[in-house]
Structure prediction request, 115 residues.
Amino acid sequence: MAIERRKYPRINFDSSIAFQIKGERGINYTLTKDLSEGGMGLLLDKFFPKNSELILEFNLKENTTPIRTKARIVWIEKLPYTERYRAGLEFEEMEPLQKLNIRRFIKKEPLFLYY
Prediction:
């Protein structure tokens, strides 16, 4: 049996996300797979090395202020039979209210509005 090493509960979270690799130009778009207070899983069309730093922008719900934060890739693996990758990201430098809203979203509680 595998040992659970995650610090935070994780939920399925299929949503679109915009991201930029730190130091590169251009915005990339992809899909999320899961979400926790400490990070998220992404599907990627191209390989990025571990510890790559990303700037993320995503919405927890429609018509809410987007969460914009930094994250880094902590693991990445090629998906079998495809040219895609799955990556695990850890959030860095997240605003406390954004982290609280993620916690509330996971627990299915009302979100705080912020600007």
Notes: The mean pLDDT is 91. The chain has one domain: 10-106. DSSP finds one helix and seven strands in the chain.
